[in-house]
Design brief:
Order of helices and strands: EHEHEEHHHHHHHH
Oligomer: single chain
Strand content: 5-15%
Number of strands: 4
Strand order of the largest sheet: 2-1-3-4
Shape: globular
Number of helices: 10
Length: 251
């Protein structure tokens, strides 16, 4: 019989990374962690590419039901795997085939195809681009604000305060790391009161508080209070982002 769970998370301190550690904490699952030094391109090393051929975090391995190792990548796929395999009590999910199950998928894909990519580009043009390109900054920051508005309107109608049904789900968890970092993308969360209340509600959950500090302390809220540290962090990150882009361009 397979020894399960045997979960090993490969991650770093990013919105996509912490959504998996938060999911694991919400489920109460034991897991091992390896910090991936993306500033040193560890995610491009051959051993990591065996787990995720796309060379991105997060990634996860587990012993599957057949006793063999399964390798998982893309954060939404990992979240779906974890609830499919281990959330038998539906703590952060709904039974497959129910209305709520499909609604969770709506918002999970909304994040993975919308909020994450658009906010990521807002971060890039606003913080990491080698020169200021006003069109790029406005294009992606405004699109992020539009997506936030969609979430805010939806949450205004929620009777539970969460995205789907009567509980926090993987859709909420997927969004939280991005929404809590709104300021980094040039978005003022105060414009979206229902979304802000949701962000604070999520932060009050013990599993979110614990999981957000994996593998390092989650510091985005500290940076928001310190413009000088924010500037230094952006400068440091810009250097390795540009270096990584140059390395990718050579392949």
């Amino acid at each position: 019989m397979a020894n399960r769970p045997d979960i090993h998370l490969y991650t770093t301190q990013t919105p996509n990374g912490i959504k998996i550690s938060i999911t694991l904490e919400e489920l109460g699952l034991p897991y091992k962690v390896t910090k991936i030094e993306i500033s040193k391109n560890t995610q491009k090393e051959p051993w990591f590419l065996e787990i995720n051929p796309n060379g991105r975090i997060p990634a996860l391995t587990d012993t599957f039901s057949d006793g063999q190792i399964i390798r998982l990548f893309e954060s939404g796929s990992i979240q779906q795997y974890l609830v499919d395999q281990y959330d038998t009590e539906h703590k952060i999910s709904y039974p497959r085939g129910t209305r709520e199950y499909y609604e969770v998928n709506n918002w999970l894909f909304f994040l993975n195809a919308g909020v994450g990519p658009m906010q990521g580009q807002a971060n890039h043009f606003g913080r990491y681009a080698p020169e200021h390109i006003e069109y790029g900054v406005k294009r992606y920051t405004n699109e992020t604000r539009r997506l936030y508005s969609v979430l805010n309107t939806h949450l205004e109608k929620s009777t539970s305060g969460y995205l789907v049904g009567d509980r926090c789900t993987i859709a909420d968890i997927a969004h939280w790391g991005w929404i809590t970092a709104a300021f980094w993308a040039g978005v003022d969360i105060e414009e979206f009161p229902a979304l802000k209340a949701w962000e604070e509600r999520m932060l009050a959950r013990p599993a979110v508080e614990k999981g957000r500090h994996v593998p390092d302390r989650h510091t985005i809220k500290d940076l928001q209070k310190d413009p000088e540290k924010t500037k230094k962090e952006a400068e440091q990150t810009r250097k390795w982002v540009q270096k990584g882009m140059a390395n990718d361009a050579e392949k």
